[in-house]
Amino acid sequence: GTSPDDISVYEGRLAYEGLVRWGPMGRKVLPNLAVRWEITDGGRTYTFWLRKGVRWSDGKPFTADDIMFWYEDVVKNSELTPMIGRTWVRGGELFQLEKLDDYTVRYKFKEPHGLFLKRLAEGSYWAIFPAHYLKQFHPKYVPKERLEQMAREKSFDLWYQLFWEKRSYLNPEIPRLWPWVMTQPPPARPVVFERNPYYWKVDPEGNQLPYIDRVTYGIYSPETINLKAINGEIGMQARHMDFRNYPLFMSNRGKGGYRVLHWISGGGGTLQLGLNLNHKDPVLKEIFHDRRFRIALSHAINRDEINEAKFFGIGTPRQLCPPRASPYYCPEYERAYIEYDPQLANRLLDEMGLDKKNADGIRLRPDGKPLTLHVETTSILGIMGDAELIADYWTAVGVKTQIKEEARQLLCLRKDALVYDVGVWQAADELMPLMDPRYFFPYNPGSIQGIDYARWWRSKGKAGEKPTPEMLRCIELYEEIQRTPEANEAKQIRLFKKIIDLNLQNLWVIGTIGEVPTIVLVSNTFRNVPEVAVYGWLFRSPGNTAPECYSIEEN
Fold first, then answer.
1. Is the full-model pTM beyond 0.90?
2. How far is CA 3 from the centre of its chain?
3. DSSP string of 422-437?
4. Phi (first) and psi of residue 119, to 5 degrees
5. N or C: which end of the chain has fewer CB atoms below 10 A?
6. What domains lie within the chain, and their CATH numbers?
7. Where are the alpha helices (DSSP H) in 43-130?
8. What is the mean pLDDT of each run of 10 residues along the chain (555 residues)?
């Protein structure tokens, strides 16, 4: 990783042990801690049968009580959970959870929840707590005065701060269901995880997993990570691999003792640009809301040049469409407005009334000021070179564009405050766009095209700005998707393609290059790593490829 916070990636990607999990190709949800499930009542009720014989890392049995504790004592405790995530609310009501027996639980929703199984696969580890351990930090089981004293001893003001510290992935004492448990936590370098002696999975011959005894996690700069990977000093690395080093990755395989895998990216693109449709400058806001402006900027981009400069021609010029491996793929949207045509861009800008220019050739806004855009990015994205090319293309058609590289925290603060012109970020696993459709309509704070519209939707109109009619239609379609039972995936696909059609008409987010593989460097001593898999945060990659089955060949 590149920062201490990156250690949390272990919990999200390698400690991937929920009721269900994604398969390696990101299309199928597989059994895990639940051996089977049943969806009834038109998609309102989900019943899960838990795997018997599973033990926590301290040897205590895992049962339905560990899920019920999370529901009764954490979710329904307003101090621990002041806000309920949308996954758990349907029809304005919190779901109900029943324990049918020690190994059977039933989730019931007021209305059909067509994405629930996929949501569990996306991050189900949050919904399972070791009750026998965490009860000692909960006021239902320990006098609150005692908890408050314990909290003060840890320099906390409130008991629930102590509870969440004990629940944290950084706590080496909490029992886990993970293949490896933390034995050397931060600030130690490296952070060390060692095999869980009670891990519950075995191979076909009955050998207990994981095969690998010890996992170390180091913190380095992105440049150092790339150098270490090229030198063969890392067992396996996918994050922070700079595609500009691709020729080095390939040419140094023999010397470095590694192989290069080309996994399928779950994202629909490498760099997305969203004009801030909630801009506080009324003149810029009016310009941004004219679809001709967005289409003109798209036609001004030379995607072939970016593809050659950054990806050695391996990628595909495209809009931010679900990738071709997705059932949501739309070839018309993929190719919309991607031709490099500065003449067409200039004509569209002229038609908008932006035909007056200053002595430097920069177009003038209706108020007479030069039309200037600032594209704000951060070094963690590794897109400075791409952004500089785009700035040149847009400036060439009279829209002066400047690049600002900022610290990630500052960038996020400016986005939240709506004081940005053009937002950029990476893709959001558009292979399965239902799960995070941030670039297709104002869905969450990552919707760089309309953050304040997303606030309006998420707050039910109590905050933010009401979206445009076209965006409201997208929201209506998405809410219908959520009410469509999982068994009717064909209907979900049809509905989402209507959302894609609205994006095709409006181009709220401008895409650049996609279909670029995720580069994974794997030591030649590593075994059982699949040659091909889908890589994405949604799929908890490489967790979806069963890292507990990876092995290291002894020399």
1. yes
2. 18
3. EEEE----TTSTTS--
4. -65, -40
5. C
6. 18-130 (3.90.76.10), 234-263+515-547 (no CATH), 272-514 (3.10.105.10)
7. 64-69, 116-123
8. 68 88 95 97 98 98 98 97 92 96 98 96 82 98 96 96 94 96 89 96 96 90 90 91 94 96 96 96 98 99 96 97 96 98 99 97 98 89 85 98 89 91 92 96 96 96 97 98 95 98 98 97 96 95 96 84
